[in-house]
Amino acid sequence: MTFSIIQAQADTTAFADTLTQSYSNTWDGSTGLEHSGPIMKAAASHDLIFIVLGVSLIIWFLLLFFIIRVDKKVGKLENELQQTTKKQDHET
Questions:
Q1: Of 38, 41, 54, 73, which one has the fewest beta carbons inside 10 Å?
Q2: pLDDT tens column, 7-40
Q3: What is the rounded CA–CA span in Å between residue 59 and residue 80?
């Protein structure tokens, strides 16, 4: 019984090893980058998650800025509407 469990673990490890060999740390597209700019060097590095994180943070901050700006404009319009209704109530 224990032999089948050990064999299954060995098979899983061998399967994972083939995946790591297929997707190894060396990227064939990164050859010849010695003369490229810093952005291309950063994009070709192995830390692409930081680039994705930076872009997503920029998008989130822009969305937050837009929402705050729209909220301020709507609040200003609501105040103007309340003032005009108060003026109309006082006139009548």
A1: 38
A2: 555 555 555 556 556 555 555 555 666 677 777 7
A3: 32
Domain count, the chain: 1
Q: Do 44 and 32 contact (CB within 8 A), yes or no?
A: no
Give tens-digit pLDDT for 29-84: 556 666 777 777 766 666 788 888 999 999 999 999 999 999 999 999 999 999 99
Structural domain for 75, as ranges: 47-92
> Which residue stretches of the chain are H helix?
2-22, 38-44, 48-91
Residues 6+ apart with CB under 8 A from 27: 44, 46
* Residue 5 falls inside a structural domain: no
Answer whether residue 54 is part of any domain: yes
Residue 24 belongs to a domain = no
Report yes or no: 30 and 39 within 8 Å, Cβ to Cβ. Answer: no
